[in-house]
Amino acid sequence: MLAMSEQTPANAADPQELDHLFMILGGHIYFQTLSAAVRFDLFGLLKREGELTRSEIAEQLGIEEQPARILLLGCTTLKLICKAGSHYSNTDLANRYLVRDEPNSMVPIALWQHFINYRPMSHFYDAIKANQNVGLDEFEGQGDTLYQRLAHSPRLEKIFQDAMESISVQANVLLAEHVDFAGVTHLLDVGGGNSANIQTLANKYPDLRATVFDSPSVCQIALKSIEAAGMSDRLNAVTGDCFRDAFPTDADCILFSHFFTIWSEENNRMLLEKSYAALPPGGRVIVFNMMQWDDENGPLSAAWGSPYFLTLATGEGMLYTAGDYEQWLRDAGFTSVSRQTLPVDHAAIIGVKG
After folding, report:
1. Same domain for 114 and 209?
2. Consecutive sets of 10 residues in the chain, 354 residues long: mean pLDDT of each?
3. CATH at 213
4. Which pTM value belongs to this model?
5. Based on the domain organization, do 29 and 164 belong to the same domain?
6. Domain's final residue, options 98, 133, 151
7. What is the pLDDT of residue 151?
8. In the prediction, which pLDDT does 5 show?
9. What is the structure's pLDDT at 11?
10. Are residues 57 and 138 in the same domain?
């Protein structure tokens, strides 16, 4: 039996609990470690070279060896790279998600977090008290939402749209694989961004026509992307304000992809009512999002995304539950409402007009 002085105190902290707490307390530092590595393209370098020593990495990145040592310590501790002897290499996680131009690359998302979201999120406390997006003060220009402010900064708007494309490309694989668009003749993608959504669906459904409905600056980006893809004969982008302008009435399916998280319950209900009015009998509305669990206990993605919508994006959105959307669709008049639970915390809620 241990002597009294050697016994573990009954109230001693569990090391795993402390590690969990330190991950939260040091979140800002750990993110900046990832961000710096991404901006230096450290993971791309190791993907190309396989293994390098610290001195070789410092030389390739054009930095001194001491800061290189600190950066590598952070990345190995975070299990983004691994160290064997004196050589460093990427983990499988980094090779899959942190190398530019890889199919599942999250580099644009990291840059979005760094250049657009990071400083505004320091205002989360004030946003909670005020119930509005006070983090928007970090951006110059006019407008009450991040999207309006970004229109004044082409550089930041491109960083934002690149991140949204990265999210959309990965999420749209889920949408195209799990949600049936057969029989849809004209799809209206409200807030469709740079057209990544409709391009993915049009590639799977050769007879599908689709239109992005978004702001003027975003539609310009979408039209260029559509033209570059050689799909101008079937795809289009139409400028409009989803809250003030009527939806086109020639669509038989309206898609809200990663869109309702932006807005309040009141605004989302209004958009569903507008959709019901614009659709023909048998027409469908599809709400495709990451979802909060119905018991409101997670997942992490909901806790990660919701403060962003309050503090910066609009001051009114969050990740809602699938049950929320189902109720709103029924209240808007859709008689047939169904749920498809998808991987990566996503779901599609589908309403059919009777």
Report:
1. yes
2. 48 82 94 98 97 98 98 98 98 97 93 97 98 96 91 91 84 89 96 90 95 93 95 96 92 96 96 97 96 96 96 96 98 96 94 96
3. 3.40.50.150
4. 0.86
5. no
6. 98
7. 85
8. 45
9. 67
10. no
Query: What is the residue range of 223's domain?
Result: 109-352
Identify the domain boundary among 98, 127, 161.
98
Which are the contacts of 98, defined by CB distance < 8 A and separation ≥ 6? 34, 37, 38, 43, 80, 90, 105, 106, 107, 110
Tell whether 37 is covered by a domain: yes
* Own/partner pairs, 85-94, CB within 8 angstroms, 24+ separation: 86/53, 86/54, 87/51, 87/52, 87/53, 88/46, 88/51, 88/52, 88/53, 88/54, 88/57, 89/46, 89/50, 89/51, 89/52, 90/43, 90/46, 90/47, 94/43, 94/46, 94/47
- What pLDDT is recorded for position 252? 97
The Cα-based distances of 291 to 1, 169, 303, 307, 340 in angstroms read 51, 18, 10, 14, 11
Beta-bridge mates of residue 253: 187, 284
Q: 78 and 188: one domain?
A: no
